[in-house]
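Dissemination and training. As part of the outreach component of the grant, students in the summer workshop were shown how a complex can be specified as a set of sequence lines and then modelled as a single object. The example used during the hands-on session is reproduced here so that future cohorts can follow it. Participants entered these lines:
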Amino acid sequence: MPRIKTPRKLSGLPAIKGFRPYGPDIDKQATAIVLHFEEYEAFKLCDYEGLNHSAAARLMQVSRPTFTRIYASARNKIAQAFAQGLAIEVEGGTVYFDSNWFQCNFCGCYFNQLDPAQPVEACPLCGKKHFQQMEEAELTNMQIN
Amino acid sequence: MKIAIASQGNTLNHNIDLQFGHCAFFVIYDKDSGGMEISVNPFRDSPKKAGLQAVKWLASQNIKTLIAGDFGPKVQPLLDQLSIQLIVLKKPDTRIQDIINLLNQQ
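and obtained this result:
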């Protein structure tokens, strides 16, 4: 049995669902290349944000060699799509998001916010506004993250 | 918005279940229409991966929020992928009715 993949941490969802080629000789029936979320993230961190592999690997919570493999696979898939005129779909992969955890002071519950771009307005359980963001150390004690 | 609550029994007077994957019942509450549905957790007796199977089953019913006493470490990455929000309520003596009252206060 193969070893279980370590889930890769993502900073957020990709801005797009995929890309489609255009031009006179494009075969519209051809199967699209599936670029995994972690490959999109690796490509973005390295080539758009200009991080080196070890810094990007720390952000994604994987080892440096694993990151390099993900990145190489991303480059290979993108190059294949360009060379063969194929569409790209961004989906799937073994990932988790950098979700933030909060504690409500009124009902005592803990909740997470999935989209880091959206501010937390109220506790999703009781609707009160008395909540606070939790620190990494508290989360380790709770064993929920 | 549909919310699933892990419950120990099949009435609203039962308490919240402290484990998610092996909980006895799921109370599925539709906040917009006020409709409610109580169903047996089909994976309550699975020896392994009950949480993962339960998450997939709940996701197929368009659940957007999950409430339970605790979640295992394996389900969280999956819930993030399916963009399902978690609420952890570490109070074993909370009744399902109390939770629904809290949700209706908003």
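Helices of chain B lie at 50-59, 75-81, 96-105. Students were then asked to discuss how this feature might be tested experimentally.
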